[in-house]
Amino acid sequence: MLALASACKPTMPTLRLEGTDCHYNDTGEGPALVLIHGLGASQADWFTQLPAFERQYRCIAPDLTGHGGSSPDGPYDIFAQARRLFALLDALGVQQAHVLGHSMGGAVAQSMALVAPERVRSLTICNSTAGFRPTTPKKLLEAVSRVALVGTLGVQPLAGLIAYRLFPHADQADLRRTMRAHFAQGSRPVYLCSLFALGRWSIWHRLADITCSTLVIAAEHDYFPLTETQRLVEGIPDAQLQVFPGSRHGTPMDRAEAFNTRVLEFLAAARGPVQAPPLGEAAPA
């Protein structure tokens, strides 16, 4: 797995958007595909996807506010981050794009499909849900424990815990080390601000407004029960479900080959309208 990270050498510039720096990864050619990472992560988490996707798509993988190389003084609100990603696409001359989001990135991706549906050619939601508000005792306990752990000890202890929960098996040691390193680079204030923003976000009542073709990818042992995922699929008019047995919350990595194959199949069938002409490119800062 780690060899894939070094094999892919994309362009990783920064653009100034509304007074803050947005760091992103831009590689490959073809129709645009936006890849949005999860909470506490960064665009670096797509190292198992980019070598496969960049052969057919222009892969644009941003760092969300405060994550990776992006400034921490941007918006944390989920819908505001969706609008910020459209500003990034505007600056890059991209009118329409397929959008893929993992975990918190799935929330941002769904928000993009609601903010500007005409610009989202397809939507892939992975290991995510339509509302992160702690509405059950289990969700509340998870949220409170994360706030307490990060607030008291910082992100490094949480990095080890998350890496083990994602990849607990002996043959996943390389993935554990990689993810621990990725998460450990995070910031305590950024993680907490992102977590609070995510906890206020819910679009269960708006799922019927997502009109593009949608693929929902779930894991057998994810944080989110399959009953909740099924509710998500049933709420989106043109949605299909793919469940990966044995997988946990890191499906793009622990089922990389099968995940990539399934997503590429979906994208090929959901290409939609011809991409509009570029808006005009802006030089990265």
UniProtKB/TrEMBL annotation:
GO terms for cellular component: membrane. Pfam families: Abhydrolase_1. It comes from the Bacteria. Residues 31-251 form the AB hydrolase-1 domain. This is 3-oxoadipate enol-lactonase.
